[in-house]
Amino acid sequence: MTFVECENRVQELLSELHDIIKDTQKQREEGNNNLETIGKTHEKMQGEAKLSTYFKQKLRNLYSVALDDADVECDLLKKGLDIIAKIKALQEEKRIAARLSSYNPLDDQPRKSMRRGVLMSMLQKSAQTLPLWIGKPNEKVPPLCGAVSAGPDYIAKPGDKVAARVRTDEAEEQWILAEVVSFNSSLQKYEVDDIDEEGREHHVLSKRRVVPLAQWKANPETDPEALFPKGALVMALYPQTTCFYRAVISKQPTTAHEDYSVLFEDNSYADGYSPALRVAQKYLVVPKEMREL
Amino acid sequence: MSEASPRRPVSEGKGVKTSEISKPFIPSELARPSNLQKIQQRKLQVKNYPRIKKLEKIGVYSSCKELQDDNCKCNGWKNAQSTSNSGENQTSSQQLTTTVTLQDPCRACNHPLSTHVKHLDAAKDDEINRLLSMIVDVENLVVCVQKEEDTDTKQVYFYLYRLLRKCTLQTSRPVIEGPLGSPPFSQPSIGKAVTNFIIYKFGHLPQKEFQIMHELAKTFIYCLNQETLETPSTRTSRGQADDFNEYKMNYTRWLCYCRVPKFCESLVHHATVDVFGRPLLKSIFPLLRRRILDDFRSDKFHVPPDKRTLILSHFPKFLSMLEEELNASNSPIWDVDFSQMPAHMPLPSPRSNDSLSPGTPGSFPSLFSMTSPMGSLQTPIAVTPSGKRRADSGTQSSDDAKRARSSMQSDNDNTQQDFSLEVINEVVNMITDPAQMLGPEAANLSSQSARDEAARQEERQGLIEFHVVANCANASRQILTWLVEIQNVFARQLPRMPRDYIARLVFDTRHRTLALVKEGRVIGGICFRMFPSQRFTEIVFCAVTSNEQVKGYGTHLMNHLKEYHIKQSMYHFLTYADEYAIGYFKKQGFSKEIKVPRSGYVGYIKDYEGATLMGCELNPRIPYTEFSNIIRKQKEIVKKLIEKKQQQISQVMPGLTCFKDGVRQIPIESIPGIMNTGWKPNSDGKRKEIVESVESLFAPLKAIVQSMR
After folding, report:
1. Which residue has the higher pLDDT, B630 or B429?
2. Around B338, how many Cα atoms within 13 Å sit in the side-chain half-sphere?
3. Which region, left, alpha or beta, applies to residue A280 given φ > 0 means left and ψ of -120 to 50 means alpha?
4. B positions 424-483 inside 8 Å of A (CB)
5. Where are the alpha helices (DSSP H) in B328-409?
6. Which backbone phi and psi does A282 adopt, to 5 degrees?
């Protein structure tokens, strides 16, 4: 898909989204009428000693309409979310394409590097806009939603964000935020890029050194089991950096928009832990070896 | 006798009415409006004389041109018929026309009047009228010389009298020569400095308050232009003798260029505020201040009561602030280069377009223009709704144009065309309308935005606060809490500094800390120590807690610290930066070149081994916390203006066809349109010079490239 096609497609999707939002509002208003009638019917029934068949039948009809309304509204919202996901996918595609085209080793032009402050605010924004998992009642949350890790056979796609364990210049091991470039299935090795443009290094890493980040936020109100429990040991992205450090969950989020509170292991504090810092759901992972502990 | 005695013209002059003279008459009072009016009437009267009468009048002041009599030395025709008449009663012109003809002989040399006015035979009426006007001035000056009691002033009147007398004899134009020099005597002028003052001090105020200050400034300028300076001897008698010679010089200049020309139009008039600068204002300020306030208290100007209250309530403070700037050794308002484009004012507001125009001295504004002692018309202090004024007229927009020019001056003189106010406003509006510029995502941080933009926004929203705190005997609990918190931030972020050392300095009463507070907790700060006697401040510690870094807080902290110091008139920062801090300090405008003399800081500042001394000199005219914003906007404006200009002047030429016709070569300047681009043909010599300089540059540039590899 060319750049222009991509742009046009995004514009189409946006206008579709616009229509859906308007439809949703209309649908919601219609549904409200019915809900009000239900409320009024209940009030009227208060006066009667016994539940008459008339009211029984009436309520049954009203409730079934209300359920249908809710289903229609729900479908509309899901459609809208799908469109948003499509737009995001297109933009991701565009970004990766742009990145590949700038990834020319013969190109000796200095790379346009982003100021760290801008990179940090982008990382924050991408965590905030991570889609929320909306499942059907009693549906199990999928892998890569919240704390649910991907299965052992899962292969991250190019462009996906991962936590990657790399060897630093000082010959130490460090978990960094990186982006997948490719996966070599014969060698079972990932090729990843450091997210930080300054030290944008290329790493070839075995599968166990790469942990994909969550692709959906878990909703604490509907899927609390998909959250890390309080006291769990995780690797968390230290705020305003691109590195993951060991941390303990001190408080779970209570809404979809809230972050975890975590305590980072830090010897410079008397009790060995930093004060509580907030980290988004997206930036918490549990590598395999940690799980085995 | 080569000069007429000042007595004689008086016997014939009628410059001043006797009734006026009989009162205690101060010659400089001739500059009062009522007297000016009388002088004008008198000039008009003389101008309406019949020609012969005019010639007679001029003849009185003209030398005899009779050559046969061994060049007659007589320097003024005297009417033989009115030998003893003082002339006071000869107000009727008809009476004289009948008695005088060109043939009437001079009482002194017996040559006819015609020989005295021979040089005027071919003179146009304009010239004759000019001479007549000058003669009226001469006559008035005679009165001044006679009546003036102060010796210094009298001397000046006498000098000017002689100058004008000489010019009437030679029918030349008066030029004041000698040690006085020529105006302006000092730069910047008082008028300019006062404008600078209100921009510098009040530029940040909302429109309405700024307007009041603007009116006060105009009032001040008006008063100063009207002010009669105290004579050097009175001043000395008041005990102000320190700068006697300088004051006397300025006083003389003021008489010659400002006061006397007011009633002697033959001399070129200058407004006091235009030609004098800081030295004069300094020497007269205390008295001037008293007089102005007294004048308003006694309602000398007949200002309407509400305006009088406004003036009386604001003026004392205004004058005190002005006096402070007058005496401060490094006040920017006396800087010749002070930019009247106030950097810290939001550029796009229409306010900066109209209310800031330098109060043009001379043409006095709304407060007084109609409320002279003679009239009683009243105009309110104009708090004109912005925008309206823009549309009104000449003086205003020319001021604006001037300002626009100063901000985008080019050395290309004639081709330089100013942008009209409308164009500038349009551009300014375009860049301030975020939707037009950045699209709906403007609120997000983009790679375009400045490093401190996010922090600035957070401060505006009240998410972060900045406080300067220090330990002292009665420090509040809040301040002590903050100090403990900031000490913890420093200790954590500067692990190589001993904890107790940090605690000792943070709680030292001579050290202060600028603390950055977010959600009630200190998340960063700069600990500093001021050395007022050495005119510098040492940056002691500077840190932001690790999880709040890369958000622009460090830059914003340093900018706040800079503004804090500008308020205290401290303009130098010094610090010993360790290897990790050098990058930060460089971004904040520090350099390894130290502007403070070594002797000024050695022994004062804490020296760290292995650290680099860095310094930063502050510019009091920069509003640091808004600096990146202002620069960005200025860049946008200039860019847009360039685009506009390019659209305007872009021109398509038909192209050359001569080469098709077999011409091999044409002179460059014959290509149509090329001269319009400002291209100038290079002379051969110049080209040779360029070639030589290129050659001489080659070696050093090559060396640089080598060393960079």
Report:
1. B630
2. 26
3. beta
4. 444-447, 449, 451, 454
5. 351-354, 388-391, 394-407
6. -60, -30
Residue B188 preceded by cis peptide, ω within 30:
yes
**In this prediction, does ipTM exceed 0.90?**
no
Question: What pLDDT score was predicted for residue B684?
Answer: 60
Cα distances (angstroms) measured from residue B3 to each of B76, B174, B537: 10, 16, 67
Helices assigned H by DSSP within A3-115: 3-46, 53-101
Half-sphere exposure of residue B626: CA atoms within 13 angstroms, side-chain side: 14
Quote the tokens at residue B693.
């300089």
Q: Is the pLDDT of residue A32 over 80?
A: yes
Q: Where are the domains of chain B?
A: 27-80+100-170, 190-227+272-334, 452-621
As to burial, measured by CB atoms within 10 angstroms (0-12 exposed, 13-18 middle, 19+ buried), residue B152 is middle
Q: Which amino acid is at B402?
A: K
Q: DSSP 3-state assignment of A158? A: coil
Whether residue A40 lies within 8 A of chain B, CB to CB, comes out as no
| Beta-ladder partners of B79 | B106
Sheet holding B511-518, edge to edge: B464-469, B511-518, B521-531, B536-544, B572-577, B612-617
CB B273 within 8 A of CB B194: yes
Beta bridge mates, B543: B525
Catalytic residue flag (residue B215) = no
**Chain segment B575-623, per-residue pLDDT in tens:** 999 888 999 999 999 999 999 999 999 989 988 888 999 999 999 999 9
In the beta sheet, which residues pair with residue A190?
A183, A205
From chain A, the residues in CB contact with B550 under 8 A are 116-117, 120, 240
DSSP character string of B218-283: HHHHHHHHHPPPPPHHHHHHTT--TTHHHHHHHHHHIIIIIIHHHH-TTSPP--HHHH--HHHHHH
From the list B66, B215, B538, B626, the catalytic residue is B538
B216-255 per-position pLDDT tens digit: 888 888 888 888 888 888 888 887 777 888 888 889 999 8
The CATH code of domain B452-621 reads: 3.40.630.30
Return the number of other C-beta atoms located less than 10 Å from residue A85's C-beta: 11
Name which of A120, A268, A277 is nearest B550 (Cβ-Cβ).
A120
Structure tokens at A284: 């918490």
Longest dimension (CA), chain B: 109
Assign A292 a pLDDT band (cuts: 50, 70, 90). Answer: low
For residues B326 and B278, is the Cβ–Cβ distance under 8 A? Answer: yes
The overall pTM is greater than 0.80: no
